[in-house]
Specification:
By secondary structure, the chain is an alpha+beta fold. The chain is built from nine helices and 20 strands. InterPro entries: AlphaKG_dependent_hydroxylases, TauD-like_sf, TauD/TfdA-like.
Length: 350
């Protein structure tokens, strides 16, 4: 009687520190044919520890981020704030606190937050995180704990391609003037100034505004109006490519659903809107210009369904992100890292 070939058991691979030979433990590939954003990173062995691998391969991950704009780590089971924080520290150093807030979020653990607490039925338009701040994160992290049964994607758009789609004359005016972001706090619409600035102390708000180039005006009824002029574009600090990087479209009243915008304008008037934007000199942005801006974003938008355990890493200057409406339960955690100041970003030529 002859026996068949002996089957050898595969060695067990435990979660362990990478010893320098882990380059082939993760492969990078297109999410689907022809889609460059995001690139997907999958483990080639069972139980690869993303944080341990990421510490040794950070430069490689950065190369893919600079080429594609975002990396989707799939198959690493990042479903806890602790696992997410470890991945952030490995790939981009410590997670940042959420300052000068504009979106409702809940703190989950340390500097890990819910991605947003906006109502599920509302779409959140494409934007680059905190581009209205003097200092903003270069890295964004989103971890999917519970994917929505329907909708709830986090669409992306390549900020380099958005810049190139815009007419030269449109870019030129924004490059020359920047844009003005005006906020009104105290109408019970949007965030309160106490939430936005994370303090009950007016003096702390005033000090923050002075440090960050924000004009402020206290108004009757403990209300606050702020104005800040920010740049609309810059060169990425590593790739040196021009990127469209601002909230001029996102915060403009015309980007809201038409019925919502009409109600706000009728009830409050333009000067009292919770958020609105203008050219840097305070003049209105033309409707046709805003339609052109939105068309450029929409043309570059890509989306993919979340899977439990996904970790999406985004270069905040190279890719804008959004949120699709959804139904059912959804839990996506968010973190930010690698702060950079606008003063360290070079102006593009045009």
């Amino acid at each position: 009687m002859t026996s068949g070939p002996v089957k050898r058991a595969l060695p067990q691979v435990r979660r362990r520190e990478v010893d320098g030979s882990g380059q082939d433990w993760v492969r990078f590939e297109e999410l689907r044919p022809g889609l460059h954003l995001p690139v997907v990173a999958r483990p080639t062995l069972p139980d690869v520890d993303l944080a341990a691998w990421g510490r040794a391969q950070r430069a490689r991950v950065d190369e893919h981020l600079h080429r594609h704009g975002a990396v989707l780590f799939r198959g690493f089971d990042v479903v806890t704030p602790e696992a997410m924080d470890r991945a952030i520290q490995a790939l981009a150093d410590a997670a940042l606190p959420y300052e000068e807030r504009s979106s409702p979020r809940s703190q989950v653990s340390g500097n890990i937050y819910t991605s947003t607490d906006h109502p599920p039925a509302e779409r959140i338009y494409l934007h680059n995180e905190q581009s209205y701040n003097q200092s903003f994160p270069l890295r964004l992290f989103f971890a999917c704990v519970t994917p929505a049964p329907e909708g709830g994607e986090t669409p992306l758009a390549d900020s380099r391609r958005v810049f190139q789609r815009l007419p030269a004359e449109l870019r030129a005016r924004f490059l020359e003037q920047g844009y003005m972001y005006v906020r009104n706090f105290g109408h019970r619409l949007g965030l309160s100034w106490q939430t936005a600035f994370q303090t009950e102390d007016r003096a702390e708000v005033e000090a923050y505004c002075r440090r960050n180039g924000i004009d402020f005006e206290w108004r009757e009824g403990n209300r606050l109006r702020t104005r800040q002029v920010r740049r609309a574009a810059g060169l990425h600090p590593v790739t040196r490519e021009p990127v469209w990087f601002n909230h001029a479209t996102f915060f403009h009243v015309s980007t809201l659903p038409s019925k919502v915008g009409a109600v706000l304008l009728a009830e409050l008037g333009e000067e009292e809107l919770p958020n609105n934007t203008y050219y840097g000199d305070g003049s209105p942005i033309e409707p046709a210009t805003l339609e052109t801006l939105r068309a450029a974003y929409e043309a570059e938008q890509v989306a993919f369904p979340w899977e439990r355990g996904d970790l999406l890493v985004v270069d905040n200057m190279l890719a804008a992100h959004a949120r699709s409406p959804f139904s059912g339960p959804r839990k996506v955690l968010a973190g930010m890292a690698r702060p950079i100041a606008w003063s360290d970003v070079t102006e593009p030529a045009g």
